[in-house]
Amino acid sequence: MKFVTDRIERFMGMGLGLLSGAFLSAQPLCEVLLRPAFHYTTEGTTLFVADSSRTFGIDAEATWSFGDGSAISSVPYHQFDEAGTYEVCLTLSNPTLSCAAMFCRQVIVPLDDCGESMDAYFEWASGGANTVGLYDASFNQDPSTRLWEFDDGGTSAETAPYHTWQLPGAHFVSLTRASDGCTASYGRWVTVDGNAGTCGPGLFVNFNAYPSGLDVFFEQSIAVEGVIPVGSIWSYGDGGIDTTGTTQHTYAQEGTYQTCLLVGAIQPPSLDSCFALVCHTIDLGHSTNVDQESEVGIAVWPNPFSEQLNLAIPMGSGVAMIKVYDAVGRVITSGDLVGPGPHVLDLGRSEPGTYHVVIDAREARTHAVVVKAQ
Question: 54, 92, 158, 240: which is deepest, by most CB within 10 A?
Answer without folding.
Answer: 92
